Amino acid sequence: MRIHTSSTLALSTCLLMLAGCSSQNTVAPSALATSDQVSSPLEPQSFSGLLPCASCPGIETQLDLLPDGRYFLTETYQDRPNATFTRAGYWEIDETRLLLQHEDSSLVFFATDSGGWLQADTEGRPIQSNLNYEIRPTQWAPKPLAMNITGMLIYYADAASVVDCSTGTRFPVEMTDAWLDIERTYLSSISAPGSYLQINADVALNWKTPEEGPANYYLAFHNLTSFTPATTCGTSLDKIEHHEWRIRELAGTFNQDLPEESKPFIKVSGQQLSGHTGCNTLAGSITLENNRLTLGPVATTRMFCMQTADLETQFLQKLEQATYVSLEGPYWTWYNEDMGRLMSFEQAAPRSNTD
Fold first, then answer.
1. 112 and 186: one domain?
2. Are 152 and 201 in contact (CB under 8 A)?
3. Alpha-carbon distance 333 to 227, whole Å?
4. HSE (side-chain half, CA atoms, 13 Å) at 224
5. Could you say which DSSP state residue 349 is in?
6. What are the beta bridge partners of residue 94?
7. 205-216 per-position pLDDT tens digit
8. Does the global pTM surpass 0.85?
9. Phi and psi of 49, rounded to 5°?
10. Mean pLDDT of all residues in 322-332
11. In the sheet that 170-172 helps form, which strands lie side by side, from edge to edge?
């Protein structure tokens, strides 16, 4: 998801020039909350406020938090044309701090006793000012979001979805008039049914509650700007190596209730691959070149584990089929030569015992 940086630059300017920010959006400041007053939301929550702006009347700010860890932050600069910017990623609460992660950057807010969030300054401390830097809880009312997205598109069994490269979020696609041309482009570009196609497009995200299934953001295409067969979101070795990557999806599903020692994982160090099949340790060689993956012979120990025998067989088969890799937000996804999705990993703390 391509995020405009104009809002970040303006925010930094505002923080450095508090005296120059508009004083019209002053409110009585809330006290900071204590850790026992802060909890993670169990339902979707919206927060909003009019925050100071160095060169405009104010910034209409709305933060939408989802219980699954996703967030969407919308900032609209008043009295400016085409001045709405969206940032998306994953949030986490660290005691009294709310951390909004996006790719390699993060925003920090501090909990207040009103149930809202106070913006941090450029040093990561609560802003002390007569101006309002707090967003407060409101009724859940997610905004329609307009943005440019780079992601992996799949259309299969009359349903389409896009996995966003920057967050790893999968958005179901609305079947609008604009989709018809994109459907034809997709079908003429793939090598096998159920293949993924890397695309860049201008889209809208709309919060909807379907007749069946949970509420979610649905993606509506406005304009397809590019598409590239046999290409993924790419993989940077420095973000992959020396971390343990635990399986989270294998052939579309995975039983997360398995004991930790039964979940396959891999680890990359330079051109060395190591890991665990759910029963046996494994080792081999690996070469990563942006989108492409080349595995040498993989050797394993030879124990038999009744509980995970089928899982181990399936995991090793997928390893043999892997051709492309894709870092999609926090997830590392592997594809076969036809761009069919094989499995996906998530980063985990190293295990103390991998035998």
1. no
2. no
3. 19
4. 20
5. P
6. 97
7. 999 998 888 899
8. no
9. 180, 160
10. 94
11. 170-172, 159-164, 145-156, 197-208, 216-228
Residue for token digits 């598109």?
153
With a CB cutoff of 8 Å and minimum separation 6, the contacts of 222 are: 146, 178, 201, 202, 203, 204
306: domain CATH number is 2.40.128.270
Cβ burial, residue 9 (10 Å; 0-12/13-18/19+) = exposed
CA–CA distance, 175 with 355 (Å, rounded to integer): 49
Phi first, then psi: what are they for 44, rounded to 5°?
Answer: -55, 140
- Considering the domain architecture, whether residues 109 and 198 belong to the same structural domain is answered as no
Domain CATH code at residue 68: 2.40.128.640
pLDDT at 10 over 70: no
What torsion do the CA atoms of 301, 302, 308, 314 make, to the nearest 10 degrees?
A: 80
Asked whether the predicted pLDDT for residue 22 surpasses 70, the reply is no
The residue ranges of DSSP E strands in 209-295, in sequence order, are: 216-228, 244-250, 265-269, 272-276, 281-289, 292-295
Listing DSSP states for 28-63 in one string gives PPPPBPPGGG----SS-EEEEEEE--SSSS-EEEEE
Based on the domain organization, do 158 and 114 belong to the same domain? no
In whole angstroms, give the CA distance from residue 12 to residue 307.
Answer: 55
Q: How many other C-beta atoms lie within 10 A of the C-beta of residue 58?
A: 20
Residue 2 has pLDDT above 60, yes or no: no
Domain shared by 221 and 274, yes or no: no
